[in-house]
Here is the input.
Amino acid sequence: MKVVLQNLTKIFPSRNKKNNEEVVAVSDFSFEIPSGKLVGLLGPSGCGKSTTLYMICGLQKPTGGKIFFGEDDVTELEPENRGVGLVFQNYSLYPHMTVKQNILFPLQNFKGENKLSKEVMLERAYEAAKLVQIDELMERKPSELSGGQQQRVAIARALVKMPRVLLLDEPLSNLDARLRLQTREEIKRIQKETGITTVFVTHDQEEAMSISDLIVVMKLGVGQQMGHPQAVYDDPINLFVAKFLGTPPINVFNGRVEKGVLMIGDDSILSIKDVPDQEVFVGIRPEGFIPDEAGTLECQVSNLEVMGRDISIVSTHEAAISPIIRSIIDADDMISGSLKTVRFRIKPNKIFLFNKTTEERIRFEVK
Ligand code: ATP
Here is the structure.
């Protein structure tokens, strides 16, 4: 089931009598989620991710725009008639009910011609429990489960209704680091097995990149870029997206283009074509630095962090905007630990230029 958001807008009225300022939580947001894909909705706190999700499921009414599931316009439909399964960060299980009763609960609310027999309900509850691998725990109460197990129950409860669309709001936030990793793989597996179109909200870019077929990056209620995680990482549309994706983050410098040469401070980095002389922001991904005595970017070394396979060189440069520059190099390219300065050659495909005012990407070709 494909999901289409068309010019979706949500404005909350002001609660502050003094300034009367409305909150534009989501602004003119359009995108299409292909059928059967897992889409990660990504952005910093307050950018409108949850509001978007709640509009898809019907808990919030849009101020403007439309939502389609397939060809059906569901904008005015009540949540219970949309065929969505929603999983929250805090599981929201009923504490006095067993796992089985929790999973059965949504089915018991089916009325009229949708009403199911007891046998069918049980069959579906066990099917959902098996899918998330908690069928051994059906008689326990939520308090007798780990956080990861509780989240699986919440997912089973969402799946048991056989939703057309599955919506996950920060489902891993309450889990410890190890369980987060494990559960995110589980979510990917379940999504693949069921083929349900899924929207996954998170502020954790690594999490979103690792499990999503597509990511959508949002900023202040506005969709910035959508695409395959690697494609967005390799080809960010603006400085915000470039900075938001990647660990360690992209290194940003004040630079300028002068007669076809990209300069950072006094260092000439690259000869480029088709960019008029101007001040620019230069973003360089950590994996774009290659230590080379003949390299053109000279940095002051602060320290080396050995990470096993890779080494992180922490250095500074007078034109860098961030206080430190972090470059990741192969351990085989190890530089001497006693060096005070290091010269880098920069991989051209790891350099991005951005307009100083709009922060939009400036594309260039290497001369
Ligand atoms: P987080 O990651 O912190 O959950 P988010 O990206 O999900 O953030 P939303 O919860 O969608 O962001 O909120 C977007 C904006 O709308 C924020 O500025 C928030 O304060 C505001 N907002 C959300 N719900 C309401 C509401 N019911 N009334 C007024 N403003 C709201």
Notes: Residues 177-194 form the longest helix (18 residues). The chain has a mean pLDDT of 91. The pocket of adenosine-5'-triphosphate is lined by residues 12, 23, 25, 43, 45-51, 203 (CB under 6 Å).
